[in-house]
Amino acid sequence: MPVERQLEIETEEYYENPKPFNGNFEGADILSVEQFTQREEVERIFAVADEMRRCVENRISRSDLDGQSVALLFYQPSSRTYSSFHAATQRLGASYETPMHGMTAYSSAVKGESLADTIRTFHATTAADIIVLRHPDDNSSEIAAHFSPVPVINAGSGRKEHPTQAVLDTVTVNSELGRIDGLVVTATGDLRNGRTIKSFAKLLAIAGEGVTFNFISPEVLKMPESVIKQLEINGATVNVGSNGDLDYAIEQSDVLYVTRIQDEWFVQQALEDIVEALGDKAHDIPPEKLLEIAKPVGQSEYSKAVTGYVIDEERMKIAKQHMIVVHPLPRVTEISPRIDKDPRSAYFRQMRYGLYSRMALLSMINGTAQ
Ligand code: NCD
Residue 103 carries which DSSP code? Predict the structure, then answer.
């Protein structure tokens, strides 16, 4: 069991560079996939996740978290991430859990409490040994880790990171295809707002050799340049296209990573674009007025974006025989239910790898699995 750490002196830059794992997960925060530096770290997770699979399939109880306490603090809706962390905690024999699914409705965040104070609160009141956090702000998990004496696991932060989803996606690819090298990955949908695809692509580029990414999306939902640069620095090849290029990309793909068009971010995204286009002039316009302009723009961009990217039986005909379709889920209209029974559709199996992966990460942080 990791010992509680001393908090560092407060600095403004605490969220800039999460500490690399350097081969050791015990007591570590899991904030960003950028903490991974070695392929071996990911391979160790594969091995531990496989051991967790064996335990779950054979109903073998584990006591990794015996006597320990885990707090789940969720500020955004979640089905898979929340339930799999909850189940993983129980299956590892945690003695106590504080399951807070409705932080924005039921916690003192409603009264304006800061995240820093909320983290200190839940550590104090529950004596948590591990805190799992989902939050709409990009730097939330780094802020939480800064104010938490115990490890923090990022269960999704804003539009930036979802490292445990990236781990489970990578476990899925390795388990289903038997390799993570030389893969052609086509990602479609909302590459601008989706945090899962950014984290997955970065992790695969770090862990895998010779990976090619085809990022296919409407112009307004393009993968940010900063992420593309990072992938290239890590040796990946990146192609960018729109729906006209989708069929050609699918034909080549080993992994088709489909994402939901995230309507909840569209108004904010339109607002960012308008502010950027206006430059200094934006300061002269009241924020309510900017929001008023952004709303219809966001709604119309959303309607345009959802068409042309649906994965259906026709598109699966041109895909390879040995490939997989994955999706972090929830899906809305981007995957036709008609392909659910296609053996290449791995998105429902993918969720179970989430349970094994989260059990693996919790036990590795705890130091009971190496
Ligand atoms: C995603 C998320 O919350 O980032 N879901 C998940 O964790 N499996 C993706 C989404 O909401 O579209």
Answer: H
Q: Which of 333, 203, 193 is nearest to 255 (CA)?
A: 203
Which amino acid is residue 351, in one-letter code?
Answer: M
Tell me, yes or no, if the two domains 33-163+354-366 and 165-264+302-353 fold the same way.
yes
6 CA → ligand 1 middle, Å: 33
Residue pLDDT tens, the chain, 370 long: 666 776 554 544 556 678 999 999 999 999 999 999 999 999 999 999 999 999 999 999 999 999 999 999 999 999 999 999 999 999 999 999 999 999 999 999 999 999 999 999 999 999 999 999 999 999 999 999 999 999 999 999 999 999 999 999 999 999 999 999 999 999 999 999 999 999 999 999 999 999 999 999 998 899 999 999 999 999 999 999 998 899 999 999 999 999 998 888 888 889 999 999 999 999 999 989 999 999 998 888 877 777 788 999 999 999 999 999 999 999 999 999 999 999 999 999 999 999 999 999 999 999 998 6
Tell me the domain boundaries of the chain. 33-163+354-366, 165-264+302-353, 265-301
| Separation of CA 194 and ligand 1 centre (Å) | 8
The protein residue whose alpha carbon is closest to atom 12 in ligand 1 is: 260
Instruction: Please list every protein residue whose CB sits less than 6 Å from any atom of ligand 1.
Output: 80-81, 156, 162, 165, 195-196, 260, 262, 328-329
CATH fold of 33-163+354-366, please?
Rossmann fold (3.40.50)
Q: CATH classification of 165-264+302-353 is 3.40.50.1370, yes or no?
A: yes
Measured CA to CA, the distance from residue 269 to residue 89 in angstroms comes to 36
> Residues in the chain, how many?
370
Is the pTM above the cut of 0.90? yes
Token pair in block for residue 276 = 């950027």
**Residue-wise DSSP of 63-79:** -TTTT-EEEEEESS--S
Task: Return the residue whose CA atom lies nearest to atom 8 of ligand 1.
Answer: 328
